[in-house]
Amino acid sequence: MNDFERIVIIANRSPFSIITEKNKKTLIQNSGGLVSAMASLSEKMIPALQKQNHQIIWVGNSEFRKADFEALEPPSKSFDFYPVAIPEDIYKNYYHGFSNDTLWPLFHYFPRFSIFKDSYYDAYVEANRLFLKQVEKIIRPGDFIWVHDYQLLLLPQMLRKKFPKANIGFFLHIPFPSYEIYRLLNRKWREELLEGILGADLIGFHTNDYTQNFLQTVRRILGNDNTIRKIFTPERIIKTDAFPIGIDYNKFFNALDDKAVKIEIKDIEKDLNNCKLIFSVDRLDYTKGIMNRLTGLEIFLEKYPEWHDKMMFNMVVVPSRDTIPRYQKMKREIEAAVGRINGKFGHLGWRPIIYQYKSLNFEQLVALYSLSHVGLITPLRDGMNLVAKEYITCQGKNVGVLILSEFAGAVAELGEALIINPNDSNEIAEAIKKALEMELEEREERIQKMRKRIESYDIFAWAEDFVNQFQIIKKEQSMLDVKIVNNKIENRIKEDYRTASNRIILLDYDGTLVPFSRSPEKALPGRGVIEQLKKISGDEKNKVIIISGRDKKFLYECFGELNIILIAEHGFLIKYPGSEWSAESEMTDNEWKKNVKPLIKKYADRCAGSFIEEKESALVWHYRGSESDFALVRSQELKEELMEFLLYHKDLQLIEGNKNFEIKKTGYDKGTSITKLFQNQNFDFVLAIGDDRTDEDLFKALPNNAYSIKVGLIQSNAKYNLTHQYEVNDLINKLIS
Ligand code: GDG
Fold this sequence. Notes:
The structure is a single chain. By secondary structure, the protein is of the alpha/beta class. It folds into 4 domains: 6-85 and 128-242, Rossmann fold (3-Layer(aba) Sandwich); 249-456, Rossmann fold (3-Layer(aba) Sandwich), CATH 3.40.50; 484-585 and 669-736, 3-Layer(aba) Sandwich (Rossmann fold); 592-665, 2-Layer Sandwich (Alpha-Beta Plaits), CATH 3.30.70.1020. Helix content is 44%, strand content 19%. The protein is built from 25 helices and 29 strands. The strands form 5 sheets. A 9-stranded mixed β-sheet has the order 5-4-1-6-7-8-11-10-9, with helices on both faces. The protein has an 8-stranded mixed β-sheet with strand order 22-21-20-19-18-27-28-29, with helices on both faces. Helix 4 (118-138) crosses helix 5 (155-162) and helix 10 crosses helix 13. 44% of the residues are buried. The site of GDP-alpha-D-glucose (GDG) has 24 residues, from helix 1, strand 12, helix 13 and helix 14.
């Protein structure tokens, strides 16, 4: 973490609450996944940070002011806390509303619970703005800003707009759902939320599945492609990755030797009456599968009466959001089910379920983890589930068995648990029996394997991994920064242009002179482009060339009237002003098209929105107009078939363009076609601009003094990059003005 001056954590939750007891105010540390994780992290980091003069700053929501917190003794010196005050009416719609009644159910695959209300979203935007206002006052250059969770999805982009160079990481603690679920959000919201997240440089999720869901959703909603989990926006490369959050392993493991924990263990043991203990603890929430767990237990008790009097299920439900009617209803249902099951199977000396609606202190929690023979964790969806990891870590002499839902993110790392589908009550019942009856040797083996993993990727390794990956992506971004045409480079180009007397300017068409369009015939040069081309080609010191993959008809219709050299079909055809078209190489054999066309046609027919373009020298399959994911699959299939075909046709080549595949003869390209132009010519200013892969041949063929510019932030043979297509027109205008 050495490269950053300070870490600024931004999360809705504040690490502390102020409570008043007997007229005395005290500061307590809040519970919950994120606060536990970050508190452990900062506690471990504090000595090092202080030595290096570094700090952890936490910005979170609270109704109290900073001075109120400073007046009280903090439970830990982990954080320098800056509260964000959110007026009550906004908070209600932002937190209980959009965060917990729209996003939370939707992201946990409960779309029917999601409420879509404009007033919720408006408050969400406002609350994110209030966070921005507080952060603005605190941050300094060099800070690492780490935004957390679903309450602040808009904040990364808000920060980016104000501080384009800021170091911004984002981590989502809940699942990122599939595209089909995410798209249920109103169009405006779903776009703005994704753009909000994309303000970060590094975006972390718990699992690879959530990462893939996010990448697919971004591609389908915003149209940004990705490769190896990197998203390319015009401005930046953004990295996404899986960082399965860990726990403070040593804190839990060492607690087993803690005196207070041992006392708790003795106390609980007394109450167990030699029964085997099944344990669960979770916040009151419909995602946690509490009712499913009870149904599974009921079946177990029905099917296996031999276990009556020999087991006990201690189910701790931690109060949460219980002012919301849905949660109140769920609580009543849970309590009714517990009463019914106890009534059905229990007797004076034994009840199968010990239900507690309260939170436990740390010692009680560890004691229960360590004493229980079975940890029963059955969420219907859970981002990660730290309880599962804590349970494994705290296995003492009993060596328990973890039963874990396949819908918890933790399952990706805890494959040795008994994995169940929480919707399958019979499976839960069987898993309980299996767990209770499992031999010690097998239990030990399973626990050891999982424990090792939890130990080596603990909360600190998680944070370090995130920060390391952050530094890597920042380096990658800065390598591109160096190449972006900034003011200094632009002035140099302008100055060299001004003083030169024999200039050559080579311009690609689609994606360079004009933006892409869904149908190529609609991507026509506007009046502005024609005017600037007229001007630049009207200067007798200039030789202007449009070098494109387009066919000769299109180029002639657009530019035939201008004093411009036209190169069509990626260098196959060339036309000087006032002359006819001539082919760069002989194209006597067009037989190959007869074989390739039916092959491509098959894919054009099977992929709605795609079509074939036939050029003199080439066949092109365009799929920009198709649904992107489907087209990706079809394009990979077509590629495979074409590659096989090309194995036997060495005179042909496949060019993967921007949303198109082109099959053409080998032996000429944009590079070869311009070599003639440079023969016996001594240009004192060379400028070439292009965005496509075919422009790479052009860039390679240029003399050393050339200014070659790639449009888009992609690695290239060009010397420089421009971020957006419209900047090409701006640059040309600057040269001619
Ligand atoms: C969100 C995501 C993700 C619970 N009851 C007591 C208590 N706890 C502590 C546990 C654990 C934490 O709270 C709960 O963490 P979870 O991960 O199970 O669940 P969420 O609060 O929903 O957290 C979740 C997490 O963020 C981290 O990214 O894993 O998927 O939903 O640490 O020990 N602690 C004490 N008494 C209790 O009664 N002392």
